Amino acid sequence: MCIGLFHEAYFNKGYGTEALKLLDYGFGMLNLHRIELDVYNHNDRGMHVYKKIGFKQEGILRVYLFINHRYYDLIMMSIGNNTANRIKAREDLPGPFFIFSVPNRSLK
C-alpha cells in the first residue's frame, strides 16, 4: 500500500494524519504485530507526524532516489502493536487518529 500527498494543494489539511487511521485497522482488524513505512529525507512534515505518533527510525538507504539533479535518502520506520496501544492513551496527540476504532471482526 502506498499513501502519498504529492501536490501542495493537499498539504496542511490533515489528510496524512487521517490516513494513519489505517494503523488501527492494521492492528485491530488484521491483528498485525508491526507496521513499516518508508519516507524520503526531504519530507519533514511526514517524518514529524510519524515520529509524533510513535514510529521509530530503523534504517537509512543513502542516496536512494535521484530527482531534479539531487539525491535523497530513504528512511525506514516502523511501529509495533504495543507502541500503538500505549500512544492511544495519550491525550496530547492528534485527535482524529486516536478516536477511530475498528470492531474486532474477521474479514469477509
Structure summary:
With 108 residues, the chain is an alpha+beta fold. The chain has 5 helices and 3 strands; from the N terminus they run H-H-E-H-E-E-H-H. Strand 2 and strand 3 (70-80) form a beta hairpin.
Features:
alpha+beta; 5 helices; globular; disordered C terminus
Describe the model.
By secondary structure, the chain is of the alpha+beta class. It has a domain at 35-88. The protein is built from five helices and three strands. The chain has a three-stranded antiparallel sheet with strand order 1-3-2. A hairpin with a 2-residue loop joins strand 2 (56-67) and strand 3. It is globular. The relative contact order is 0.22.
What form results from the Cα inertia axes? globular
Radius of gyration: 15 Å
SSE string: HHEHEEHH
What's the number of extended β-strand segments?
Answer: 3
Report the helical percentage: 25-40%
> How far is the first residue's CA from the last residue's CA?
19 Å
Strand content: 25-35%
Main beta-sheet strand count, sense and barrel state: 3 strands, antiparallel
Tally of helical segments = 5
Structural class: alpha+beta
Uncertain parts: 89-108
Strand order of the largest sheet: 1-3-2
Overall mean confidence score, pLDDT: 75
